Amino acid sequence: MKLNEYSLLSSELVQFACDESATDWQIGEAVSVQAHGSDYFIRQGDSVCVGKALGGQDRIAIQVQRGLTLWILRSRHEKVLQLQSLDLVEQLQLDMAVSVDEAIAEQLASKGEISTPDVQAAIVWLSDRFVSADDIPGSVMERVFLGRFDNASDDGFVLFGAGWRGTVKRDMGALRLMSVTRLRGATARLAMAVGKISFQDASVAVQLQSTEQRALLDAALRDNGSYLRLWQEYGALEWEQARDCARELGSLRFKNADLIEGELWAWFLKVDVDHLKDFRKRWKALALSVTTQVELGEKELDLDSAVEDAPEKGERARRRPVRGVLRFEKDGVVLIPSQDRRSERPPANGFIYYSLSGDEAVQTRRARARQSINDGRRLPQLSYLLEGVAPPSARRRQLVGLSTYAKACFKGPPTERQKLALDVAINTPDIALIVGPPGTGKTQVIAALQRRLAETLGENSLQHQVLISSYQHDAVDNALNRAEVFGLPAVRIGGRWRRDEGGVDPVGVWCERKRKEIAVRLDAIQRDEPLTQPLEELDQRITALRLASLSSQERQTQFEQIDVLLHQLFDLDIRLPANIKDRWDQFLAQQKRVETQRQANEPAGLVRLLRALRTSSIGFADDGPDRAHQLERTLRRGSVKLEESEWKLLQRLSTVADATAADLSELAAFKLSMLDRLSPDYRPPQLKQALSGEALGLLADIEHAIDAPLRQSRRGISAVVASYHAALAQAPNEAARAVREYASIVGATCQQSAGKAMSSLKELSDLEASEGIEFDTVVIDEAARANPLDLFVPMAMARRRIILVGDHRQLPHLVQRELEDELISKQSLTEAQAKAYEQSLFERLVKQLREQEKVDNIKRVVMLDTQYRMHPTLGDFISRQFYESEGLDVLHSGRPAQDFAHSILGYQGKCAAWLNVPLQDGKEKYLKPGYERRAEASAIAKEVKRIADSCGPTLSIGIISFYRAQCDLILEALVDQGLAEEEDGEIRIARSYRQTEAGDERLRVGTVDAFQGKEFDVVFLSIVRANDVIVSAQKEGDERERLLNGKYGHLRLANRLNVAMSRQRKLLVAVGDQRMAEGPESEEGVPALTAFLKLCREEMAHGR
């Protein structure tokens, strides 16, 4: 800060006349003033003079005598020095270091003083505004101005700088800058501190470098092992498993590759039939699916010659083989590559083998994410949080959680917990978790969060700053479904919207929807706007004059019609400027004179007869010969000269009833030629038909003169909206490009967030991609389901905050149990370390951050507590059995029971029922890899058929089982009932039962995993397990647990049962043997199922 920039300096200038004038005075710097007899001794570095005060001697003498006035040299005119003063109450000699944290950087960024909320940038800005250093050779003096609080009990002070003030308080023995605001009004009682003055980085990143913090982390890693390291080992085992799979599958030689004609880009690969048979056996033994990717290469895949822990990116780029999925046929295989890679062609012959490219990419992205987290590149405290160590909490600028704009995302008034979730998510210093039980409106919260985040970013940093991610495509699409921020949709990276995968690009959908909305609006505007019709007609006539080939008379007609339209616009207060109006009138008069003279020079009626010639087959068949004969007679009477061939043409066409196409073409050419000859203008036709430069310039001036005032008034809205509509309709690709360029929200799965498409969006090269992809905020939905290794990828990209949304009381995270067991046995892990594999990262953080809240008093975890999906009785059941029983909050119901009323025959007034299929109807049957029970499948199919047909397409029905084998049986039973049908070897719901009247899914059969996030009016839950196994009371401990697991199976998994029993809106029907939910064994082994049977009986007892 320059001292002369200080706003609290006296506005009066004090003048001193010096005895001599030095030349090296520094304007704007401090000087010392001391009494020297009746004069004053003035000094600045090596520059000195003795001066006499010019006016105000008494006040100057008092100021000099007190010695607490700061004097600033403002200007010098020959031997006269002009000084400004600042009276101080105290001058201190001290060194001062003021801590600056993230909150100050965010404050300054929000005010537009620094471009990004970076602490180092904030320190530079603060030093420039608050610290003054002499710009005099040999001087190292630094100054800062400060004042005490009015309340003497406050342990702090205020800094005063160039137009700004900063509040400083002592915190844990250090001076901390608490806020920075604009300086307004005069301030009394200023002190000046002189010494070594500095602002110091107190961000979390710096605090974590302290010896104390490193010791805490090292101790945690020593006692519990590294969480990141544990999952790195899991990832390495996954990579080895993929290599083993490729090795066991081996290669299949193909002899030639032929392109298959059709919409789908595919290649038929000719192979040896016996080799194909062996290859298919190995494929089946490995349980590979139809979506498994294979590669084509000229050589066999060799994984044993050079074993590598991780693939090199350069090697992948060099070989880039053709990849795709296989479809097996009798004499060969069909390779279907990704439809966006049509330029790649397979070799003429070679080998087919398992593709490791996807596994390689996954491993590389995970490794980069782990390295970024360990290095602390963006959120430096993230590694501490993941390792279970509480880091220092960054102080952040506090923001309002719910804005009016964000509130519009909710279907009704948001609940207090929804508001709290937004507040916690926006203001978290690092990570926030939103626990969303079934039907609690977490999707609405995510939509509101997207809007609120965009609002907090500021207009200069909106582009691609929020990442919405999840472990699967459906979850990303669902989270983006309601996302429209500042009128723009989210940009979707990858996903199933690609045309070859049967989906739709959300940006394209948005453009088409906007076009339709604007078309409706434009129609309404044009109906109500009297200007619309004359403006449209004016535009059409001017365009016709510019582009169409018109005769002189046709041009004159257009000019006259334009003049009529200009008079109509004049009556509607749209008037041409006087100079343009005068030019138009003169031009129109001149055109009329020229046209009148041209017509006077024409043979009487000759042009009319020429224009009346019939040159089309239909027209000629009407009266073509008569008109040709009449024209011939007129030409002969007027002694008009024609070529012999032209006379013969007219004579011939005068006597025939039907003219050939050649004759008509020749007649048309004759007609144009004659019209040109009769015109006084002998230029070529293309020049004669073009407007003059004068006419073109005048029409352009008329358009501009009308368009300019229209666009500045409400009447111009029609033209503006019409232009917007035309841009969306005629240049949709450009519109989509603009949307993708400026949208603030980006959606991608965890893996695709680090892919090439994201690098391209962020305008990064491949080399920059690993370090360069970053977002202000990362929001991950269904976080409790994701493998931690995949969660690390988008989490490592967050610069400001991470928001995880999920429910650890629903389905568990996706890991391979056999890999867990292998790691636990191989590494002799402790119970706590083994728990890291069993427990999702989301659940781990829920427990950890709630404990951390007790220490730092910062709330990071919020559970949404009001469900709107299901009948209140069922909502209360879910709350008691799956949330309250685990010490979590009560789940309230936000809608009354009457909202879920139904008239389903046999279930009137009920929301819970049990369809008993007793054990004597058939026991469970084990078929690897699961259980099935045919009696239940048949009972379900019959009941669903009855309900579906009686209620019609207004009712949606879901059928859930814990076992894939049972789902297959149910589908077969549905075929027998006419509810499903076979298509291409697969059983699918019959077309008439696929959609409700509202367009929703009407009937679905699937495992619990296929139903998370879904909801239906009625749900049938197939219990499947039906046996007479007795668990002896004498059995205890692990042996008892083993027996209970054997009797009840998946029914003992509370998280899966939670999902299965929370998909319905109106009615939940359990189907199975009631005895499996009766007695002390069931109360111990499957308490939730036992409680549901009791609920069903209560419903019966109360007549519901």
Structural account:
With 1104 residues, the protein is of the alpha/beta class. It is built from 39 helices and 41 strands. The strands form 9 sheets. Strands 7, 8, 9, 10, 11, 12, 13, 14 and 15 form a 9-stranded mixed beta sheet that branches. It has a 7-stranded parallel beta sheet with strand order 26-27-23-28-29-22-30, with helices on both faces. Strand 31 (866-867), helix 33 and strand 32 form a beta-alpha-beta unit. It starts with 13 loop residues before the first strand and ends with a helix. Mean pLDDT is 85; it is low at 306-311, 313-318 and 497-503.
List keywords for this structure.
alpha/beta, 39 helices, single chain, 7-stranded parallel β-sheet, 9-stranded mixed β-sheet, flat, 1104 residues
